[in-house]
Write a structure and sequence with these properties.
The chain has a domain of about 240 residues: Rossmann fold (3-Layer(aba) Sandwich), CATH 3.40.50.720. It has 13 helices and 13 strands. α4 packs parallel to α6. The strands form 4 sheets. A 7-stranded parallel sheet has the order 3-2-1-4-5-6-11, with helices on both faces. A two-stranded parallel sheet has the order 7-10. By secondary structure, the protein is α/β, with parallel strands linked by helices. Bound molecules: nicotinamide-adenine-dinucleotide and 2'deoxy-thymidine-5'-diphospho-alpha-D-glucose. The site of 2'deoxy-thymidine-5'-diphospho-alpha-D-glucose (DAU) has 19 residues, from α7 and β8.
Length: about 350
């Protein structure tokens, strides 16, 4: 791809956990213009973008990616050189209790975005057509379960075998994106990454949930035995990887992105407890260590046992490697939650959500 000095990058889901990290990175480290389109579901928080929201290269438009008419106007007005598509329903447990929104946003929304994007792209000049990229951000969960054995890694060629409604919806969207490349020639790229963690992570996910529950003296729920393994990737390493991919990757390529950090869930929770025992020695809840709050609860239905990424392709072809070790990244994350109580309070009380809904009535 020809790298423009000043690209217009359209980001979907930029008010979410990873999307906001990508936008903070792009505004701070590059000269590109960014348009963030986001529906602001329960998981979208513009507060996560506060430090860059006054930058003249950043704009926000409250938009649902299933709304074809709005998307068409947005493409015409903003004239993007690239799309980074992160908008999705992202939480596995929610997909198990209620899957309709996952089908709607992750599958129908991706379809609408692809179609609007294709209509826009087809009318670009030959040069702009060639350099355009539709970057679809997906998950390692599409590959299914690596099972009990400690060997084996997900490669870009691993067959798809999704287990949950969430991962099935993401697998469907990946198939649509590849079909739009093969059939219509849309210059797409797909990345499949492992579990992200870091600042601004919504406190329904294991790491922020554990930190915040512990600080409130609440139980720390571990599903099943806690022996399941995830490959943790620091969100700022991921943002850097996505930028490498969108600016350097050839159209049609797929890259797996992982942190080389395989950890059992029980070990993750114990490490957080150790950090909190050091940083916030507990005097309130009648416990000697935060580990006393660990509680084994019934397992997640269909729970995949192990995910682990082979990230050698992105390393060899694009020169990206993760910089954060799990211990350093986890310490930074715990410290961030300790120092950003205001962000947490607003999200937990819903006060921020009510305020922001009024600001951006569509
Ligand atoms: P998130 O839930 O934190 O954020 C998702 C964002 O999408 C929110 O801001 C939400 O408001 C927005 N959104 C949801 N539905 C929308 C719609 N219909 N129209 C417009 N915006 C909508 O998710 P995340 O953790 O930041 O994940 C971002 C992407 O990365 C997702 O596609 C997810 O599948 C993928 N992913 C996430 C992880 C992870 O560990 N978090 C790992 C692998 C892949
Ligand atoms: O692998 C990438 C995926 O990682 C992304 O595609 C998803 O969007 C993202 O949500 C994440 O999915 P997980 O299901 O792995 O994340 P979660 O934080 O919900 O769970 C991590 C592990 O911890 C998982 O094995 C389930 C377990 N868990 C989770 C919670 C919330 C618990 O044991 N207790 C809990 O309370």
């Amino acid at each position: 791809m020809k790298e423009f000095n000043f690209m217009n990058i359209l980001i979907t889901g930029g008010a979410g956990f990873i999307g906001s990290a990508v936008i903070r990175y792009l505004i701070k480290e590059t000269d590109h213009k960014i348009l963030n389109i986001d529906k602001l579901t329960y998981a979208g928080n513009l507060e996560s973008l506060k430090e860059i929201s006054n930058n003249s290269r950043y704009q926000f438009c409250k938009t649902d990616i299933t709304d074809k008419e709005s998307l068409t106007k947005i493409f015409q007005q903003f004239q993007p050189n690239a799309v980074m598509h992160l908008a999705a329903e992202s939480h596995v447990d929610r997909s198990i209790s209620s899957s309709a929104e996952f089908i709607q946003t992750n599958i129908v929304g991706t379809f609408q975005l692809l179609e609007v994007c294709r209509q826009y792209w087809i009318n670009l000049s030959e040069e702009k057509k060639q350099s355009f990229r539709f970057h679809h951000i997906s998950t390692d969960e599409v590959y299914g379960d690596l099972g009990e054995s400690n060997s084996g890694l997900f490669k870009e060629t691993t067959p798809y075998a999704p287990s949950s409604p969430y991962s099935a919806s993401k697998a469907s969207s990946d198939h649509l994106v590849r079909a739009w490349h093969r059939t219509y020639g849309l210059p797409i790229i797909i990345t499949n990454c492992s579990n992200n963690y870091g600042p601004y992570h919504f406190p329904e996910k294991l790491i922020p949930l554990t930190i915040l529950n512990a600080l409130q003296g609440k139980k720390l729920p571990i599903y099943g035995t806690g022996e399941q393994i995830r490959d943790w990737l620091y969100v700022e390493d991921h943002a850097r990887a996505l930028y490498q991919v969108v600016t350097k990757a050839k159209a049609g390529e797929t890259y797996n992105i992982g942190g080389h950090n395989q950890q059992k869930n029980i070990d993750v929770v114990q490490k957080i407890c150790n950090l909190l025992d050091e940083l916030v020695p507990n005097k309130t809840y009648g416990i000697s260590s935060y580990k006393d709050l660990i509680t084994f609860v019934p397992d997640r239905p269909g729970h995949d046992i192990r995910y682990a990424i082979d990230a050698s392709k992105i390393k060899n072809e694009l020169g990206w490697v993760p910089q954060e070790s799990f211990d350093s990244g986890l310490r930074k994350t715990v410290l961030w939650y300790l120092n950003n109580q205001e962000w947490v309070d607003r999200i937990l009380t819903g006060e921020y959500k009510n305020w922001i809904q009024k600001q951006y009535q569509s």
